[in-house]
Amino acid sequence: MPKAVKHEGETRGGVAIAPPEVDEPLAGLQSIQIGALEKALRPIKATVVYLGTNPNMSVCLPGIVDVVAASEDGDFPEVRTPLEEGGNSSYDFRRLDSRQRPILERQFKGPQSHLRGRPCVVIDHPIHLYEIYKRQGQDGSKEFEILAGPAAQLELMAFFLDRARVNKMAAREHELVTKEG
C-alpha cells in the first residue's frame, strides 16, 4: 500500500482547510505540456503530389525548417529542425511558369501512373505534412497525396495519429472552457 504524504494546510479567509493526502508514487508526477511535445519535432521527408485542378496552387503554412549547413570538411552533417515558430513556409504546386510553359522539374516522375505529370514538392516538416494530409477539395475529395518510403510512412502515421489525438484533446479543453465561461 502506498504511503500517504501530508501537505501543509492552507487557509482561506482565516479558516483552515484540511490538507489533502497524496499517494507518494503520485507526488512526483507533472502535467504534460502539449507545446513541449511539438518542440521535439524531427524532419520526416515525403513527396507531396497535388491532385487538384488549380493551375496556380500554392500552400502557405506557419512554421519553418531550420537548416544548419554542413561543414565544408564534412565533420558536421546538415541539420534540419522543424519549428512551429519563426515564419512561414510556402509550397508551390504551380503547373505552368509565367510564359505558360509546363514546369518540368515540379512534375511527378514516379511509377504511379495516376500521379505522373502532376505537380509535386518534397516536404520534411511533419506538421505541414499533417495539415496538407487533412486538406480536401470543395467536393470533399482528397487534394494531395503524400508518398514516402516505408520507414517514413511509419513515422508519419504515428505522428498523424498523435497529432489527431492532441487536436481532439485541445478541442475538448476549448469546449469545456467555453461552456464554463
Task: Give a verbal description of the structure.
This protein is of the alpha+beta class and 181 residues long. It has a domain at 34-59 and 90-180. Helices cover 25% and strands 28% of the residues. The protein has 3 helices and 9 strands. It has helices at 34-38, 126-134, 150-180, and strands at 4-6, 10-12, 15-17, 21-23, 46-50, 58-68, 79-92, 120-123, 144-147. The chain is extended, with a radius of gyration of 24 Å. The two termini are 40 Å apart.
Fraction in helix: 10-25%
Largest sheet: 3 strands, antiparallel
* Coarse morphology: extended
Total beta strand runs? 9
Average residue pLDDT: 81
Strand order of the largest sheet: 8-5-9
Given the helix and strand composition, which structural class is it? alpha+beta
Give the terminus-to-terminus CA distance. 40 Å
Low-confidence stretches: none
Radius of gyration: 24 Å
What is the element string, with H for helices and E for strands?
EEEEHEEEEHEH
- Strand % is 25-35%
Count of alpha/pi helices: 3
List keywords for this structure.
single chain; 181 residues; alpha+beta; 3-stranded antiparallel sheet; two-stranded antiparallel sheet; 3 helices; 9 strands; extended
Topology readout:
Elements: E1 4-6, E2 10-12, E3 15-17, E4 21-23, H1 34-38, E5 46-50, E6 58-68, E7 79-92, E8 120-123, H2 126-134, E9 144-147, H3 150-180
Helix pairs in contact: 2-3
Summary?
The chain contains 3 helices and 9 strands.
